[in-house]
From TrEMBL:
Record function comment: Plays a role in the transport of magnesium and cobalt ions.
Gene Ontology molecular functions: flavin adenine dinucleotide binding
Protein name: Magnesium and cobalt efflux protein CorC
Keyword vocabulary terms for this entry: CBS domain, Cobalt, Magnesium, Repeat, Transport
Alphabetical list of InterPro entries matching this protein: CBS_dom, CBS_dom_sf, CorC_N, FAD-bd_PCMH-like_sf, FAD-bd_PCMH_sub2, Ion_transp-like_CBS, Transptr-assoc_dom
NCBIfam families, sorted: PRK15094.1
Superkingdom of the organism of origin: Bacteria
Listed GO CC annotations: plasma membrane
CDD domains noted in UniProt: CBS_pair_CorC_HlyC_assoc (cd04590)
Stored Pfam families: CBS, CorC_HlyC, NMB0537_N
Family, similarity comment: Belongs to the UPF0053 family.
UniProt domain CBS: residue ranges: 73-133, 138-195
Amino acid sequence: MSDDHSQSNDSPSPKKGFFTLILNQLFHGEPKNRGDLVELIRDSEQNDLIDPDTRDMLEGVMDIAEQRVRDIMIPRSQMVTLKRNQTLEECLDVIIESAHSRFPVISEDRDHIEGILMAKDLLPFMRTDSEPFSIDKVLRTAVVVPESKRVDRMLKEFRSQRYHMAIVIDEFGGVSGLVTIEDILELIVGEIEDEYDDEEDVDIRQLSRHMYTVRALTDIEDFNETFGTHFSDEEVDTIGGLIMQAFGHLPARGETIEIEGYQFKVAMADSRRIIQVHVKIPDDSPQPQLED
């Protein structure tokens, strides 16, 4: 019994040894720099103290301290906006098409932000006995932040002041874009899906006889098989990559390009990637066979 007990003490488990390492780091030799801290986190994963998702989140928290709002904002060219003089029906059309919940309201152009509209504020005006609609009745003050603001401070401000969207301006006071709390949280936890993302599990869906919606991550090989096309996948693998290659830049929502007779319109995009496109096929094309 005593021999077994002695052997157990002489052969500590790797996890126990690593806990000792953590205690030593915390109380006798704290990480000297970011690299040391990253190494400690990755060692924790390798020793099964944390899982890969937790490691990604911890590294994401550290990353936001080094990024500026300009690095994650939605550029002004891709902002979905409402105009101050739009009717209720016109506002609803934009809201339904975009599936967003908050919108900058502009007057003359995107440099003139009058405020923020929340989609839920339109609900009372949809009753038959409601008062006449005017955007001014539901307009909320727009929060304005500089491009250079640190992302971690932006997140703290979002949480403390309880708002979810801010307008980003450059050093000359012009509107550069907008940033939302979701943009920041996705840096930490990865892409956040909502009820509108369920439909995107299907790569290709038919909208009408000649119109289809296609996920940008759809493999070119799968697209070719469905539509009988012959797009090359030697340089890029996905439809989104093919479209970006054809444009020569990251296109904004609404931009359209024709490739070998097929018209591609960017339906959804953010500041980093194309998300979804609408594809209009030639009139004489055979009917694609979609999987159920």
